[in-house]
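Quick one, probably user error.
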């Protein structure tokens, strides 16, 4: 049975998770953004946003797609600007984010890589830090890297970031509302994994 997809999503998808209530928020236009993650061995590189939209949240490295850039070019440029590294990025998924009252939807194309060159370096926008993607072992407590800090990430990242780590391509939508404290809280979400055409 083919799932009924939320407005703005398309593809040959199998529902992974959904939740929330109410109608999907309407939008007339999309603006394109990228978000890149480096996954190496049992760790993932995230950045603490130091300014602007998403300040004090951990996320991948990314931003707006500039005129004339492909999605991959934009992702590679943002990774270099924000973390000081280069990587052979591959498309990993798509996330449509809509906030109540926004004039446009954020179409965020997600990229990942398992290798990189350079040294992750703090920029004026992001502070890179490695996190464990595995459960900490009871032994060698001094060497344990902190787990992915979902509590200081965007609401809903825990639904799709594990798919990126597992190498499972996804498509999703998150509708949110901004609370009085400036935090966005999901009101509705849907994520599906891409069925290979092979």
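Nope, works fine. Designed sequence:
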């Amino acid at each position: 049975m083919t799932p009924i997809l939320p407005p703005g999503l398309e593809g040959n998808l199998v529902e992974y998770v959904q939740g929330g209530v109410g109608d999907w928020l309407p939008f007339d236009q999309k603006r394109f953004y990228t978000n890149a993650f480096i996954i190496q061995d049992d760790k993932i590189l995230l950045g603490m946003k130091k300014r602007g939209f998403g300040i004090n949240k951990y996320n991948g490295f990314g931003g707006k797609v500039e005129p004339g850039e492909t999605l991959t070019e934009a992702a590679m440029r943002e990774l270099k600007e924000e973390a000081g590294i280069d990587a052979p990025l591959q498309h990993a998924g798509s996330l449509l984010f809509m906030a109540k009252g926004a004039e446009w939807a954020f179409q965020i194309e997600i990229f990942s890589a398992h290798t990189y060159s350079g040294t992750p370096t703090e920029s004026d926008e992001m502070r890179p830090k490695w996190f464990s993607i595995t459960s900490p072992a009871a032994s060698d407590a001094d060497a344990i890297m902190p787990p992915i800090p979902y509590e200081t990430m965007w609401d809903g990242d825990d639904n799709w970031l594990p798919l990126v780590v597992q190498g499972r391509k996804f498509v999703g939508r998150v509708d949110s509302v901004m609370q009085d404290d400036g935090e966005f809280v999901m009101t509705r979400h849907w994520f599906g994994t891409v069925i290979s055409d092979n």
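The longest strand covers residues 30-40.
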